[in-house]
């Protein structure tokens, strides 16, 4: 009988201790906020559900949830105003992480193309990014302009190379292109870089040699396996004043990633200087011209999913709208969006994978194997 009483007492004591430990964890633990979606429709009906946890314990009812620094009533959010909303929570005097959710304009709400292999998180089709530092004032730049044309016509790696011209110091440069040129520490025009790596550079030479060097450099970059896959769709508003982009990224390997969306325009008429006898200076069509970026830091981008570290098997979305007038777009029909995802390597971020999507079209997840 005594053994039974002692055992019962021990059980009650252990139960009490466990209960105390759980309470201590709730008091000491940092709240973690999560949202049911990354993108909702700003139609007043599409609901976003916010959850707050400490460890495995759901504390949503006892937490205060804030949206754009204003306390919410309850944990369900709807809106009719299309913009980004930042959510965080307070629990036991401690603040949670911040989650950004985009409310998309109903008229521009985009559906991503179907993923034919939704459970696949490897074997992504790989493309590389080449940025061309150039300017209409640069008399040597026609050598690189022609080299790029030759590469696109004959290069074995051309189909898997996304080209963006980052102008600087001329009438078709922009804040984003100037920032890329500065970040890559461009010392001479023209020059081209791969995957936003200042060390992966092709400097000016004979156009045929340049084209061969571009193809070889692209081939070296393509030997690496892509760690992420990308899909995107884009459209314009009825009055052509806005270009909307929705993109999703699948993470195949854990790590730190950043994302950026660049708006690029072809066939911009502008004068081009030339010191090359085979290229007459004058007004030409400039292609692949960077016009705007979704992030204020166009070369760094923003953390994928707002996270410092992503796990294998996660998928993240991003929605962005470009103002056509602010981007000084000449013709929306000549625009495309370039979605680039960079991966952290020794505290530096270089492009891991990239796609380009003409405005009004969609690009699905692509797999090489």
Main sheet attributes: strand count, strand direction, barrel closure:
6 strands, mixed
The oligomerization state is single chain
Strand content: 35-45%
Shape: elongated
The CATH homologous superfamily of the largest domain: Immunoglobulins
Tally the helices: what do you get? 4
The Rg value, from CA coordinates, equals: 25 Å
SSE-based structural type = alpha+beta
> What's the pLDDT, averaged over the residues?
91
- CATH first level of the largest domain: Mainly Beta
The count of strands amounts to 25
User: Helix coverage percent of residues?
Assistant: 10-25%
How would the blueprint of this fold be written?
Layout: H1 2-28, E1 32-35, E2 39-41, E3 48-54, E4 57-58, E5 64-67, E6 70-71, E7 76-77, E8 83-91, E9 94-95, E10 99-104, E11 128-134, H2 141-154, E12 161-167, H3 175-183, E13 191-194, E14 197-203, H4 207-222, E15 228-236, E16 242-251, E17 257-265, E18 268-272, E19 282-286, E20 289-293, E21 302-303, E22 315-323, E23 335-345, E24 348-358, E25 362-363
Parallel strand pairs: 2-10, 11-12
Antiparallel strand pairs: 1-3, 3-4, 3-7, 5-6, 5-8, 8-9, 8-10, 11-13, 13-14, 15-16, 15-25, 16-22, 17-20, 17-21, 17-23, 18-19, 23-24
């Amino acid at each position: 009988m005594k053994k039974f009483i002692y055992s019962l007492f021990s059980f009650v004591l252990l139960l009490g201790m466990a209960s105390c430990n759980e309470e201590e964890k709730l008091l000491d633990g940092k709240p973690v906020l999560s949202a049911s979606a990354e993108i909702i429709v700003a139609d007043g009906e599409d609901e976003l559900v916010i959850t707050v946890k400490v460890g495995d314990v759901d504390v949503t009812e006892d937490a205060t949830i804030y949206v754009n620094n204003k306390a919410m009533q309850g944990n369900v959010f709807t809106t009719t105003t299309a913009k980004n909303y930042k959510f965080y929570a307070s629990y036991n005097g401690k603040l949670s992480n911040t989650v950004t959710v985009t409310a998309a304009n109903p008229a521009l709400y985009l559906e991503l193309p179907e993923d034919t292999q939704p459970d696949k998180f490897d074997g992504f089709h790989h493309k590389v990014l080449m940025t061309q530092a150039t300017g209409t004032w640069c008399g040597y730049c026609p050598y690189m302009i022609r080299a790029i044309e030759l590469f696109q016509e004959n290069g074995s790696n051309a189909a898997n190379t996304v080209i963006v011209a980052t102008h600087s110091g001329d009438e078709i440069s922009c804040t984003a292109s100037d920032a890329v040129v500065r970040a890559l520490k461009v010392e001479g025009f023209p020059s081209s870089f791969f995957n936003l790596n200042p060390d992966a550079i092709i400097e000016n030479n004979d156009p045929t040699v340049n084209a061969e060097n571009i193809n070889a450099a692209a081939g070296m970059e393509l030997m690496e396996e892509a760690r992420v896959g990308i899909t995107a769709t884009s459209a314009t508003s009825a009055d052509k004043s806005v270009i909307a982009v929705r993109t999703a990224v699948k993470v195949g390997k854990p790590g730190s990633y950043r994302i950026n969306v660049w708006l690029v325009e072809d066939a911009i008429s502008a004068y081009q200087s030339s010191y090359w006898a085979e290229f007459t200076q004058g007004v030409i069509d400039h292609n692949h011209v960077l016009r705007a970026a979704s992030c204020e830091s166009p070369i760094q981008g923003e953390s994928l999913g707002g996270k410092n570290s992503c796990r294998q098997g996660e998928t993240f979305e991003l929605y962005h709208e470009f103002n056509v007038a602010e981007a000084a777009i000449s013709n929306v029909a000549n625009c495309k969006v370039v979605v680039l995802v960079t991966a952290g390597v020794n505290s530096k971020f270089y492009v891991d994978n990239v796609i380009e999507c003409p405005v009004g079209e969609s690009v699905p997840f692509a797999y090489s194997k």
